Amino acid sequence: MLEKILQFTVFSNRILDYCISLIIFLTVLAIAKLFNKIILAKLKKWADTTSSTLDNFLISTVQRYVYPVLYYGIFYLSIRNLILHVFIAKLINISAVAIISIFSIRAITAFLGYTFHQYLLQKKKTQEFERSFMGMLSVIKVIVWGVGIIFLLDNLGFKISAVIAGLGIGGVAVALAAQTILGDLFSYLAILFDRPFEIGDFIVVGDFLGTIEHIGVKTTRIRSLGGEQIVFSNSDLTNSRMRNYKRMDKRRIVFKIGVTYNTPLAQIKEIPCIIKDIIGKIKNTLFDRAHFAAFGDFSLIYEVAYYVLSQDYNQYMDIQQEINIAVKEKFTRLGIEFAYPTQTVYVAK
After folding, report:
1. In this predicted structure, what is the pLDDT of residue 158?
2. In this model, does residue 197 exceed pLDDT 60?
3. Which long-range contacts (CB under 8 A, 24 or more apart) does 111-114 make?
4. Least enclosed by CB within 10 Å: which of 17, 27, 129, 176?
């Protein structure tokens, strides 16, 4: 009786064939479940004890994206010995291609997201930079999904060569019409990855100077010292020579002092030492040199160079003011006079 039931045919397949398929499906599924419960669980516990996050990411990727494909593969393997209707067989094959393609794309985008996130953690960038970077990641994900969908349609038998050719011609036309916008977009990518400046940097571009407030896909906005906002296209910035004062480790300062011609020779020789001693006592400064540089029209000119060990402009001005006051006090105490424009007129009798 049982043998007759097993040999009974339903939709071109014996009951025995269906039973074999079910046994194969349940057996392989049980093995996969055991692997998930035992092996992957132990690997996950081990990954939690390591300092790296890559192993956690790989295990999570396997559980989220590999296992759904594996389950469908188990189903696909179990029905291989069955005789199926042409429509059903084609539907199963299409489903297999679609599932593999979709989960592969999701795994790739997840890997890209993990890579970008790790880059941001290492660089310790600002929140504004992170938003820009995540915006760039979204564009990359759209491209990946687009390529994946084209690949999927091609594998499903659709004739996409004409569509791709049409998109190529249309893309050329759009690129020619929007080359300025595309130029700014590529300049944005250059700024994003090369990082010539960041939010908060103080830059000088030509006659314009200010602090970076926003870096957009097309424009970058700068807040000038006068308070107004200056808007640059990204192409203007990448094609210009700019000075980034935020990244200046120390500031080199050169200034001149003029004393009168009737200053005694002993004091003329002493002045460089006086200036060196004054600068050496001021915090966050590094003395470079002080020399009697030239004979001016109405003064003996000294040239002084030193470094301010800070990028802060206000701190530089405070230090320069302190130096000027100290030099004035010292010269007054020693009777050294500063020169100012004078003329001596000799009248012949």
Report:
1. 67
2. yes
3. 111/57, 111/61, 112/137, 112/140, 112/141, 112/144, 113/137, 113/141, 114/53, 114/57
4. 176
